[in-house]
Design goal:
Chain lengths: 206, 334
């Protein structure tokens, strides 16, 4: 038990201190690296709780894909943090407002979950301790909560289409490679044999 | 109590050493195999001077790297610059923990083994990005960006390939995946997926024909440009350890892992780890042959192949396989 507690406090200390480092570090790329450290230690905490599926999913989705794209953008854009900091005071009220809303929402959620069970829909499926948590999660997610699951999928799809639409620009006169067109090209399409008479030349119509 | 803990830790360390030392030796040998196959295809001899058949060539190279000076560029971000090769090498070795060499021969047997493999192999991109960014130089940076985009794109199709295999198995445990192939290896019913997995593995490990991150004609050596001495050697060994890992993953997912091709006498007398090693070697020789005979892809072609060919094909195949399994009531439900 002691070892368990020690490891738990180690990971939670790393998680909290690295998330503080995310918002306080001056270098944006360092901030993203601290974010990755945060994700990794959170997935370690998930695994310690026995939720190995969620832990692995955090690693794959957040660390393996989302954070890579973050890093990508941060490295490419070369954001100057000094310029961002100048507007700190003018953005402060909005930031505080958003923070307060999030805290109230979280408080409401935790309050109802803790003190009024009937308010929250829980699954009626009995989960036995023998089933691995991947299976248990699938059993709940694809039966009782299938609508929530699909709605969240559709929201993500809409967000993706929106992002593509915002960045999509059709340029004219852009040369693109069309593999099927290239492969299906025959000799007759590209080569023309003409008998050329002396002193007359030849006129090609193309 | 403390004694008990120490005992457990000692046993675990012993187990890990028993796995890692052979893996590291195998990595050294595989570099030699790679160069020999490459030489054979090009009608050269390849490394044949150091030791019998040149077997000790890699050891000689490693010694050379150890004695070389490590140079850290003045403009580099020191911590991340040093961390990058360490991350690459340790992630490449970390994943070996879950590879089963037999029904009872493994270091760790976890419920979500295949997800662990997938997660660790998808983390491999960080070593490269860190190296590229910390070098503070144009070529490494461009190489790292290319590599990150490439690995993220091919992971998607590898994910779908894993899903098709999991549909046929009904478990995320690597041992269950191998045992499910007792009747027939998944390479036969899922042959198109096997081919796509093989090509995606080439792209995921930055092997030719997809070695764009280190395309020497355009990017000098990509993300490795500023590295020297032991740090370069770590990248190099980590890359080969990753290739071996992808071969192991391919043989576990599609070639029946440690199982012999048929359960008849001379074949099932060979111990199970040997079968897995043979299959890994087979896949690796294919990797080496492809390095020698296929010219390098252009970057836009690589992206097109990943997103416009492999992604839709593997997605359709997932739907086909699941439809087939549901229609014929062959879903593995327990």
């Amino acid at each position: 038990m002691l070892a368990h507690a020690l490891v738990f406090y180690l990971f939670s200390f790393i998680a909290i201190s690295s998330s503080l480092a995310v918002i306080s570090s001056k270098n944006t790329v360092h901030a993203v690296f601290f974010l990755i450290l945060d994700f990794v230690s959170i997935s370690c905490l998930f695994i310690m709780m026995g939720a190995e599926y969620l832990g692995m999913l955090t690693l794959i989705v957040y660390v393996g894909a989302v954070a890579v794209l973050f890093l990508f953008v941060v490295m490419m854009l070369n954001v100057n943090f000094k310029d961002l900091r100048t507007g700190f005071l003018s953005y402060l009220p909005f930031g505080l407002l958003i923070g307060i809303v999030i805290i109230i929402e979280l408080g409401m959620m935790i309050g109802t979950w803790k003190y009024k069970d009937s308010f929250i829909k829980t699954s009626e499926i009995q989960i036995s301790s023998k089933v691995s948590n991947t299976e248990a999660l699938g059993n709940v997610l694809y039966t009782d909560f299938i609508h929530y699951f699909q709605i969240s999928g559709i929201i993500l799809l809409v967000a993706m289409i929106g992002a593509i639409l915002l960045t999509f620009r059709q340029k004219e006169n852009l040369k693109r490679q069309d593999i099927t067109k290239q492969v299906s090209r025959e000799r007759d399409d590209g080569v023309l044999l003409e008998e050329v008479e002396s002193f007359k030349g030849v006129k090609l119509n193309d | 109590m403390i004694n008990e803990y120490l005992n457990i830790i000692f046993l675990d360390v012993l187990k890990i050493m028993l796995l890692l030392v052979p893996v590291l030796i195998a990595v050294a040998m595989i570099v030699w195999v790679d160069r020999r196959v490459w030489g054979l295809v090009q009608l050269r001899r390849g490394p044949n001077v150091v030791g019998p058949f040149g077997l000790l060539q890699t050891a000689a190279d490693a010694l050379k790297y150890i004695f070389k000076e490590i140079i850290i560029p003045a403009g580099a971000n020191k911590v991340i610059f040093i961390l990058a090769p360490v991350v690459t090498m340790s992630l490449a070795l970390l994943a070996w923990a879950v590879i089963p060499f037999g029904e009872n021969i493994y270091v760790a047997n976890i419920n979500v083994g295949i997800l662990y493999l997938f997660a660790v192999s998808s983390l491999g991109v960080y070593g490269i990005i860190m190296a590229g960014w910390a070098s503070n130089s144009k070529y490494p940076f461009l190489g790292a960006l290319r590599s990150a985009a490439q690995m993220v794109s091919y992971e998607v199709s590898i994910g779908f390939i894993i899903v098709t295999v999991l549909l046929c198995v009904g478990s995320l445990n690597l041992i269950d995946i191998v045992v499910a192939q007792k009747k027939v290896w998944f390479a036969i019913p899922l042959f198109p997926m096997f081919v796509i997995f093989f090509i995606s593995a080439l792209a995921e490990t930055n092997r030719p024909p997809f070695d764009l991150p280190e395309a020497e004609a355009e990017l000098v050596a990509g993300y490795q440009t500023e590295y020297s001495g032991m740090m370069y050697a770590l990248f190099w060994l980590g890359e080969y350890a990753n290739i071996l890992l992808m071969c192991a993953m391919g043989s576990i997912l599609f070639l029946g892992g440690w199982l012999p091709p048929a359960d008849i006498f001379p074949l099932n007398a060979i111990p199970s780890p040997l079968w897995l090693v043979l299959k890994i070697l087979l896949l690796f020789v294919a990797f080496a042959l492809i390095k020698a005979i296929v010219p390098r892809y252009r970057y836009d072609q690589l992206m097109r192949l990943g997103w416009k060919v492999f992604l839709p094909v593997s997605l359709v195949w997932v739907i086909l396989v699941s439809g087939f399994l549901v229609y014929f009531k062959m879903l593995p439900v327990n």
